[in-house]
């Protein structure tokens, strides 16, 4: 079955309402409670009008007793029903909101959508745009439905008292409760989209300025970053003023319609009294009922004006949920251990982009140690991303133990292939919890052992709280070398049979780098190791080296064999041997 076309896809508002379908009964009860609360308010004023008008005729007190009791009952009922409406609808809306957040988190947990949105904009989508679901259900759905029920009952009462008065009230309610909200919704659509976009831009500017503050200060660019935040804030303020103006316009129009309807009802009622078709007491009830009736539709223009922002927020929310996965494969069962075979692997990052990998072939037997080297931009990290299941190949095959890696679920692949990506992430938690992410049942002895293998145990022991020391946001409290070694330690804790290390010794000084590599090679034991690096030191200890240039393997062999052959490896190794200043040239 083909993919759905854009025209067949429901709009964001319908899809947001669809999220609440499992709790439809709760919302129905909330609407009923809201209708009872509003009807009690209208009935309270109508009954009060009857009571005052009737009392003016000096009837026996017993004639008023029932009305007095009913007035008190309606007052209590109004408060209780309003409380129940808020309780039931907010409970249902918050549960629906929780479900929506879980869906978003589950989608983002598949890794690849995170990389498609800027961090600040993604935060806005997770918070403000997801919260739009609650706004729609509580403010955009419940009041109109309650108004429909109560408005119909109020018009029926007014029509029973005086037919022209009931028809006039129906027209006024339709104008204030339907026409004005429709105009407000149309006028608010553009500002709503701009408000959602402006909120995302402000969040992005703030996150960029805060996270990049050290570099911005170092390069004298903080003033530009602050001005960007100020411009984003000014744009959001401007759009918010426009939105407030629409709310004021809607409230003013509703008040005008209510006043005109009230005057019209009064004139019709007076004429009917003079004609003898309506009594003085029903006149008072008719007029005050018309006055109270507009309480029913009072929230609707504001709710309609917010629909534009809610619709835009919903569209941004479903942008995340509808992002097509870059990684597929759902075959059950574990992948078998065995050799890694990559054949004719082709990957590019967009339809019009050049091939990052263009027919790459690679073999890694069980327990072997293979290095992948090459100039910057040759596709080395793209190969690592494919093996980590951060993206799938556009063509070619990747097999482990004879099984197609891309046909299995990503978690099944990661149980067999783990390691350290080029930019490993540290969570804002303790050293212990960052390590136990790889093996939750690891003991403290296991943690100290793996820290010793990456030469980090002494540094951690010197910290005031040891393993309970907080690493800060993104590991900000650690040096670059310590962050890298902690990521290496985490990789060594896994039970994966193949470790893929993408630039594992970056940020390390030469002495520590060589020592860590020696310990790393010793620590891998009988596990396979694929080392992706631009650093050519210690490669004499690898079983095989693959030189990747232009997205394909142009040389393969041992360190000795590649040094003996003319090609990129011998030239790069010669440049590196001349001094540290030549390393960058070798990488290019």
Automatic annotation (TrEMBL):
Record-linked InterPro entries: AAA+_ATPase, ABC1_TM_dom, ABC1_TM_sf, ABC_CydC/D, ABC_transporter-like_ATP-bd, ABC_transporter-like_CS, P-loop_NTPase, Type_1_exporter
Keyword Transmembrane helix belongs to the record: yes
TM helices/strands, residue ranges: 27-53, 59-77, 145-163, 169-187, 246-271, 283-307
Keyword ATP-binding set for record: yes
Recorded GO MF terms: ABC-type transporter activity; ATP binding; ATP hydrolysis activity; ATPase-coupled lipid transmembrane transporter activity
Key words, A-Z: ATP-binding, Membrane, Nucleotide-binding, Transmembrane, Transmembrane helix
Principal cellular location given in the protein's record: membrane
GO-annotated biological processes: cell redox homeostasis; glutathione transmembrane transport
Superkingdom of this protein's organism: Bacteria
Domain spans labelled ABC transporter: 340-575
Annotated compartments: Cell membrane
Record-level GO cellular component terms: plasma membrane
Membrane topology note: Multi-pass membrane protein
Ranges of residues in domain ABC transmembrane type-1: 28-312
Coiled-coil spans in chain: none
SUPFAM superfamilies: ABC transporter transmembrane region, P-loop containing nucleoside triphosphate hydrolases
Pfam families: ABC_membrane, ABC_tran
Descriptive protein name: Thiol reductant ABC exporter subunit CydC
Native organism: Pseudonocardia bannensis
